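Why does residue order matter? Because the sequence determines the fold. Keep that principle in mind as you read this record.
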Amino acid sequence: IKSIRRRITEAMDALMARGIADGSIQAPGPRMATFVVFGALNWLPRWYNTRSKLSIAQISDQIAALLVGGLSPRS
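Structure:
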């Protein structure tokens, strides 16, 4: 399991590094970007329950919007 986890993290780090290099991702570094994305995804089960007002799809959409758009004010 640790080996698989390491390979997934390394693959995501490489993807983030390519995005940072080509300007499609704005992040302080690939590892931080990887940790933020995985952190958000790993907490999804904590945020959702069957009594939630939002569906899993709605929660996922909101997380994606925050990750893609960040917390910067709208211009």
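The mean pLDDT is 89.
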